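Researcher: Here's the sequence for the chain we discussed earlier.
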Amino acid sequence: MRILQLYHKVPFPPHDGGSCALLAMSQSLIKAGVELTILAMNTTRAPGDLKHAPPGFLDHTDFRFVEVDNRIRLQKLLKNQFTTTSSFAGRFDSPDYRQTLVDLLHEKKFDFIQAEHLYLGTYFQDIRKNSTSKICFRPQNVETDIWKNFAHHCRNPLKKLFFDSESKKLEKLEPFLASQVDGIMAISEPDAEYFRKSCPGIPVTTVPYGLNLNQWPDLSEEVTGALQICHLGSMDWRPNIEGLRWFIKEVLPIIRRTLPQVKLHLGGRNIPSWFNKYHNDQICVHGEVDNIFDFYRDKALVVVPLLSGSGMRVKIVEAMAMGKTVVSTPLGAQGILCENGRDIMIAGNAESFAEKTLALFDAPAWRREMGKNARRKIFENHDLNKLAERVLKFYNEC
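Model: Thanks. This is the structure I predict for it:
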């Protein structure tokens, strides 16, 4: 089977959840024995470097990329406020990428073309005009939900107005583009339900984020009594910034009333310089982390305090795979097959988040058991090899 994957960015190095999800899908296809071609955008906002590709990955793919300038330009943003055009989607509409895609479709024949992001939907009509290949849409989230939630929590009135306007445009654009494909492969069941309702008649399935499980060590036996919390995530993603601000301002002070010696460690790429104002004896801002296993190893808890977002939190799946105990919000845990209080701890407000964090510090044996349960759950549901079989089965059903 010949597959063409369309990437909205070059995912090397794979340090953020979106890049990890792209690579996981590609690696599952490679393991399934498909002939894989990839056409990626190398964007100015999130540039990648092929020298950081996983060993052997480029040997098993025909990997091509196009430089795309997707910087945010104020003039365009203001202009689009008076049109039906989404400023977010428009940043990925590239004449150079379109021409390269058309040339590639004339050069090669494919059984399936898989678009890995909503904003690549702007090229669906070009594919239809230049190829008889079937199109599969692999959304990593529901973009409409992300920006609706972000508008809801935004306190700046001008930004709130902008995000609200964009979410309304995406609310129309998302089902319009998704309805043009032959199949939709959602990353979580809540996302799949959204597309089933908004795109009736289009086959929809769920294929979660997959891991090569033998690469993830068991870190559930952390240092007993270590009063350390950590968060790891890309800090150029707005929901991460929003959630951490909330945690630091609303949750952490409650925790410190009981455990003043608790230390919070923050890791991730592109942490804004203004975030360093939080750096002190009790909050350590690490920046980009070279080795996530070393970062997680001696931390008692992983916190994922998301207030907006969609899809599946890759960093939660990875932390659980290592046997780490995770405390998150209902939105953060959304889409992951897990049981509150058994595999993960879920809290819906600041008081509950602090209360459950303190309870886990008070019960190290329970904390370790929850980490072990989490690891078993991920091994049952996120095996890359098993997910590859589901992908090919769905292709054949479309």
